[in-house]
Amino acid sequence: GRGIWIIHDITPLRALTPHTLAKGAEFFQAKPIVQVLSAGGGWANGDAEFAGPNPPGDAIITYFLQKRHIFGDMKIEVRDSAGKLLTSLPTSKRRGLSRVAWSMTMPPPRIPPAANAAFGVGPRYLPGNYTVTLIDGDNQYTSALHVVRDPRVSHSPADRQAQFALAQRLYGVLGEMTSLVDRMNGVREGLQ
Q1: How crowded is residue 153: how many other Cβ atoms within 10 Å of its Cβ?
Q2: pLDDT digits (tens, 9 = 90+) for 84-100
Q3: pLDDT tens digit string along 157-181?
Q4: 147 with 104: CB under 8 angstroms?
Q5: Which of 153, 71, 181, 167 has its CA nearest to residue 121?
Q6: Average pLDDT per block of 10 residues along the chain, 192 residues long
Q7: DSSP letters along 58-99, please?
Q8: Alpha-carbon distance 92 to 7, whole Å?
Q9: Residues 6+ apart with CB under 8 A from 109
């Protein structure tokens, strides 16, 4: 048959040395993650033209497990440079190489029931240094995750920081508004 395999990064395959295979688990971080900002646009391709998908916009975390995880919880935690837990990601419990995607965004905000679904994504974290930890029972494996800004953007890091601060404020206001709407609906139901 005719087919094409697209592998954006084969660094994990090259890193599978006998030394690595002897470890219980290992992270493979090839290069800094570029936080690509969506620009939209595009065009339709003509007949008989092949185009592969763009690389994902998420941070792809690749890890190796020597043995299949059978008992207990296993998760990957992402923390910021201050050690604050940002998210816990589900993992594959199979042995070998696995990947998990981190969207680099805060959880979606709480929104009132009648609000627009456009609020379904939280603010995007800033580029910087993060820590990724695989927790496998009593064992922990840690790696650094470096997120860099999209090289196509022209705004300064200070502008991006101001944008994130505003997004966090609006995120909080939306949560407060949702709590207020919930209380109003509760009073309305109680009166009925």
Answers
A1: 14
A2: 999 999 888 888 888 89
A3: 899 899 999 988 988 888 888 888 8
A4: yes
A5: 167
A6: 73 83 80 76 62 76 86 88 93 87 88 66 89 88 90 88 91 86 89 89
A7: SEEEEEEESS---SS-EEEEEE-TT--EEEEEE---SSEEEE
A8: 20
A9: 119, 122, 171, 174, 175, 178
Strand, coil or helix: 20: helix
At residue 168, the 3 state secondary structure works out as: helix
β-partners of residue 140 are 135
Where do runs of H (alpha helix) occur along 81-156?
A: none
Residue 4 structure tokens: 């094409």
Q: In whole angstroms, what is the distance from residue 140 CA to residue 70 CA?
A: 16
AA letter at 98: S
Other Cβ atoms less than 10 A from the Cβ of 60: the count is 16
